[in-house]
Design brief:
Chain lengths: 214, 208
């Protein structure tokens, strides 16, 4: 075996994206790793996720753009006795707070406002740190990435709340709830950040560190 | 044309999060192995993983049918009662012109969980009986891509938040499906925790 601290890529081996098997990449496929296939499951092999930085940047920027209308446009409109009442994500959380359900207000505030913003900021910082070949606390940056990937799904709460409210109230004659444009943009933010986290390759954090140390 | 790569010994692996090479022998049941450099999970081996995952997946399949056949919330306003199943929410969103949301909800609450349950049954049942299912790599790839989008547990939180919002307008009565949903969420998380991909791949490799 090779020296301690050796990586897969340093001995010409790639971990299969699908089944996790370590495979030797034949030399002729070195420049473009997709020429070779995993010995266990037959998937195409790549040393790193393909176009990881470009893809992640594109998706994060798209998410950041959608984040603005997601928070400015109403996520739903309650029409009761001829009166229309629009609610944005923030005013929805405030409504829960003033009606006394502060634990739920906290859930909505964290899941719908903090998490998407934190994800966008975290991914941008990770991308910049990789571009700058930073060797600063790689283990903590990897942990930041893992957390970012794990919490993303919880932002979907707001979309589900809207769907449930629309379903329950739209059938009655006395009141109707309509989903707003904000909800569409908000859904886009959640989906885009989930794809962005999936495209980022945490091994890039360590690749740069190795160069600095060696 | 793809060329299969030469074999690397099965005990040699690289950390999926930081690419550090390491040797890993057998991991005992109920234990997990972590990378010494970045603390990433190298291998997690649940106790009785195959049996538990299989049992919980079958339970999830039954609960899923119950959860989608009965109304999960009823809403009483001025004597007028409205019942909702999951499907009505998705359909109403579509009718309001918000097809994007309708599609997203349908995918994360119906399509992805169904795919997850179906593929798990397809993979685990033959393996439990000592056979390797046909098309294992394809089924596994589908499962891996579906898994992040199966969001039952997030939907539960959604229900919790929606109820007090409606309390102000009318009374909300939990339906049969709501209890099935709570159980489904627990059972599906349990099936996921007991599922051991590496074991399946090792069977696949041994059968080749």
């Amino acid at each position: 075996m090779s020296a301690p601290g050796a990586t897969g890529i340093s001995i010409g081996c790639a971990t299969c994206h699908e089944c996790g098997r370590l495979c030797r990449v034949p030399l002729q496929g070195f420049g473009h790793g997709y020429e070779s296939a995993c010995s266990r499951c037959g998937s195409a092999l790549h040393f790193r996720k393909r176009y990881s930085l470009q893809r992640t940047w594109a998706l994060v920027i798209a998410a950041a753009i959608c984040y603005v209308p997601a928070n400015l446009f109403p996520v739903m409109t309650v029409i009761s006795l001829g009166q229309a009442d629009s609610e944005t994500i923030l005013s929805g959380a405030i409504y829960l707070l003033t009606s006394g359900a502060w634990p739920l207000a906290l859930i909505v505030f964290i899941a719908s406002i903090c998490v998407p913003m934190a994800k966008i900021i975290a991914l941008i910082s990770l991308l910049i740190s990789v571009h700058r070949s930073s060797s600063w606390r790689p283990a903590d940056r990897t942990r930041l990435y893992r957390t970012t990937e794990a919490i993303g799904r919880w932002s979907m709460v707001d979309i589900y709340v809207d769907t449930i409210l629309v379903a329950l109230v739209s059938l009655g004659n006395l009141a109707t709830i309509e989903a707003g444009t904000g909800a569409v943009f908000f859904g886009a933010v959640v989906v885009l950040t989930m794809f962005a986290a999936e495209s980022f390759d945490p091994r890039l954090i360590w690749d740069n560190c190795g160069e600095v140390r060696a | 044309m793809a060329t299969l790569s030469p074999q690397v010994p099965a005990t040699l692996l690289a950390c999926p999060d930081c690419d550090l090479l390491q040797r890993l022998g057998d991991v005992p049941e109920g234990a997990s192995a972590r990378c010494p450099r970045c603390n990433g999970v190298l291998r997690r081996r649940p106790r009785n993983g195959l049996e538990r995952a299989l049992a919980l997946t079958y339970a999830a399949a039954i609960l899923f049918v119950v959860a989608n056949s009965f109304p999960f919330l009823s809403f009483v306003m001025k004597g007028e009662e409205t019942q909702t199943t999951l499907a009505t929410g998705i359909i109403d969103m579509y009718n309001q012109g918000k097809w994007e949301i309708s599609l997203l909800v349908a995918f994360t609450i119906v399509i992805a969980p169904v795919a997850q349950i179906g593929i798990l049954i397809y993979l685990l049942t033959p393996i439990r009986l000592g056979r390797v299912p046909y098309g294992l790599p394809v089924a596994f790839r589908m499962l891996r891509h579906m898994l992040p989008w199966s969001m039952m547990e997030v939907f539960m939180i959604g229900i919790l938040v929606a109820i007090p919002k409606l309390m102000g307008m009318a009374s909300v009565i939990p339906g049969t499906a709501l209890y099935a949903f709570v159980l489904l969420m627990l059972v599906l998380s349990g099936a996921n925790a007991a599922f051991d991909p590496e074991m399946i791949w090792q069977r696949h490799e041994a059968a080749k």
